[in-house]
Request: fold
Amino acid sequence: GRRVLQQVQYSHNVQLMSTSDYFETIKIEETKQDVGPVVAVFEGDVTCPDGSVLAPGEAFDKVWKLRNGGPNKWPIGAVLSCVGGDKMQAPESVLIPSVLPGKSIDVSLRMIAPLKPGRYTGYWRLSTPDGNRFGQRLWVDINVMEPEEPATSAVETKEVCFEAPAAAAMAAESVAPTPSSHDEEDVWINELQVLADMGFTDKMRNVTLLTQHNGDMEGVITGLLSST
Reply:
């Protein structure tokens, strides 16, 4: 009866303590070595490694791989419980199967990323049914970030697409050599042939007028007629 009373009193005290006080108490306790025969070894993060980026409110499964590194199987009724930090809407504790010595197990918790962007870390420990913790402290460490707006990136891409040809054209104009008269004849070769068929055979004169009028045949012919 006395032990039950002490347990109730301890639970009551824990509820009265602030989160920071509770967390400090846990940190001090964790400096003590586990002396029991129950041993758990952390083997790795199966999902959601440290620093994983998640969207606000995104649901995810955190999975740790643990191994029974001791001589005895884990007791029936062992639990994994949150001992500090951000619980991220996970249950306070989950039951862990009785794992045989040397065997490994994947322990999974369904969590939901907080809505506010930032870095969040939650700490978890295994414990026996009578409350003795064993194994290393486990944690989940995530970065919550707003996803980039796809519309914004599309607009930026369009702007680049529109600007690139214009820039290329300007660059081409700035480095393009001044065409020679022979090049100009090639440019207006069709127009020159038409003018020649009409009896205007002065190529230099025709090229000059074609260049002035930017290929407008009506203007060129008017110019030729007025100069004769």
Remarks:
- Residues 16 and 22 are 9 Å apart (CA to CA).
- DSSP finds seven helices and eight strands in the chain.
- Residues 8-35 have pLDDT under 50 and may be disordered.
